[in-house]
Every structure is written in structure tokens, then in C-alpha cells.
Target: TIGR02281 family clan AA aspartic protease
Amino acid sequence: MCLGFLQVAPLSAGEITVHAVFDGQAVISVDGERAVVAEGESGPGGVRVLQAGGGRVQVEFAGETRWLDRGAGASRGGVTGGAGGAAGKAVGPGVTVYTDSRGVHSLTVGVNGRAITMEVDREAESVMLRERDAERAGVDADAGNTVHLRTERGRVNARRVTLDEVRVGGIRRSGVSAVIVPDDHIHRARLGRTFLDRVEVEPSGDALILR
Model:
């Protein structure tokens, strides 16, 4: 079975790290706290995103306003360049998802405004989160219904929940059904058909384009 995630490796080092930039939003982290932040909103450490698009993001932080390129980080002392490859990026009207070092299509997905690394899995019936992912996204697993699933580690009791919002780049879907499984039953969260069936998925060489 193909596992599916939105994973983007950090592109730089510094107090602020820019992981990915999409039209109208960016994935940033400050001191290890990561989130998808839309224009006009504040994220980790009080960083405010003013503009985002074209691989660049304008942020307001520590009383300063500056532009950061994807692949650059910043601290209160200045901007630092970084290296690394993003597994998913906005291209034209869609989001192109590339394969990661393990050969799977992975990228960073916004789940209820929190950044979760996922693998795109077109065979998975549902979006799947580990318990740690659900906790990060503020999802109460106890509020869901119990369902029985089979994973690569065998049968498991999972919890069926509804996610308020799932974002992939500029693509936003509300009320997405998902299941939560124990941490040790899947290697990464999966972007399954409860989201993928609500978008267009177009193969492009070794990549996938979501529209």
C-alpha cells in the first residue's frame, strides 16, 4: 500500500524557519513550534504573516518587517540562507507533490491550522492520523466513534472523527472525515481518499499535482 504524506523538510536554520510558501499562506516554525499561517494571521512565537506567494513570505517579527525566501531563515539578528528540498510546492493553480527520500509523495498538510507531515495514499479510504498528530491538531479522539481497521501492523481499534479543516497549499476542504490510530501502527499520517476524492489528482512524471 502506498503511504501518503505532506512532508516538507525544513529549508533553513534560525529562530524562524520557513518550511514552505504557498499562495496566501506559509509553513513556518519558531523554536520548533510549527504551523500553517495565513496572510494577516499570527503563528508560532507571534510571527505575523503579511504576504505570502511566489516562494517568498513577508513577516513581522520582534518589531521588524522583512521578506524571507523559501529556503531562508531569520533570527532577531538577521536572515540566514538555508539548504534543503521541499517535497511539495505551489505550482500554477495546483500544488505539486514530489517524492521524498523514501520514494513516497509527501508534504506538509494544514490540519485545523497545524502543520502535519503526511504521505499521499490514494489507496487509503480515509485520512489517517496518529494519536500524536491528532493531539497536535487539537482533535479530541475520545469524541469519535470506534472503528476497526487493518494496518501493516495488523488489526487495530481506531477512532473516526471529523476534521474542521484540511489545507494543502491553497486548497481548503472543511468537514473531512479521518481516523486516528495508535502511534506505532503507521509510520506517518496519510492523506487518504476522504480528502483526495474532493480534489483533482493528476500524475505528472514522478510527481502528483493536486488541484
The chain has a mean pLDDT of 79. The first strand starts at residue 16 and ends at 22. The chain is about 5% helix and 55% strand. The helical segments are 131-136, 193-196.
